[in-house]
Amino acid sequence: MKPTARTRSAGPARPSPARANEPLPALDRVIHERLRLAIVSALAASPSLTFNELKDFLGTSDGNLSVHARRLEEAGYVSCEKGFSGRVPRTAYRLTAAGRRAFARYVDHLEALIAHARR
Amino acid sequence: MHAIRGHAEAHIRYIRDTMERASSFTAVPGLGGIVMGATALGAAAIASRQPDPSRWLAVWLAEAVVAVAIGALAMARKARRTSSDLFSGPARRFLLTLTAPLGAGAVLTLVLARSGQTAILPGLWLLLYGTAVVSAGATSVRPVLAMGACFMLLGAAALASPSAWGDAYLAAGFGGIQIAFGAVIARSHGG
Hints:
The complex is a heterodimer.
Chain A: H1 29-32, H2 34-45, E1 49-50, H3 51-58, H4 62-74, E2 78-85, E3 88-95, H5 97-118
Antiparallel strand pairs in A: 1-3, 2-3
Chain B: H1 2-22, H2 30-47, H3 53-81, H4 89-114, H5 121-137, H6 142-159, H7 166-188
């Protein structure tokens, strides 16, 4: 799967050869952490995921997922919707427009680093 | 510089793998399944009154066309509503795995109907539909897999039962199971 097929259009243009020698901006530290990167990548591929779906998928603990999901929420990259499925509490996460743009920028940045290193 | 490139490439691979694994086809139509189930119950009532196997078969083939049309329409509507892409990787995998066993079922139906062996068709249809749904369920939401398994069990039971019970099994499967799981999907997966 090409990770940026849909999201890339929302982000800035990829660096052109003329810009290849410009200094590269720092990677987005909010997304760069491995578990947060996994959360954002998973949400970029799925309209929304519940807390339990994300926990099973990432194979992590409740506490760990809570901490990192909250960090993404605070950055405005992820929105959280709390509700009930029958009597069971249900927390659903989805990527916000800002999160989608940040993810596209992050992937573009990685691709720019690869291109830069090839020169 | 090589180390930076290696890290960046590893991250891109990690993102790609994560997205691939997280992709599931979520535009499974729960409400459409309920409507399909309702038409199947009607078809079972009509088919059970037919005087000969060819008319019986015609009723169920007509029901199959109606059900496919309802399913396709409902899927397209849900995909539009949930902003899912019907031509994305997960959707393509879902439809491909769903249609392959159904295609095999269509060929077997033709062969068996020509040789007059219509009595085993209910069990065969339920078993192959269940196989299709189980296969497609691997790339979709959880209830789909369970629904397929129920169809397969019912198909196996139908094949081991007297042929006179065929319409009852078809009503239970394409009607009952479809409606029950349609309701579950509609409630827990957005319509």
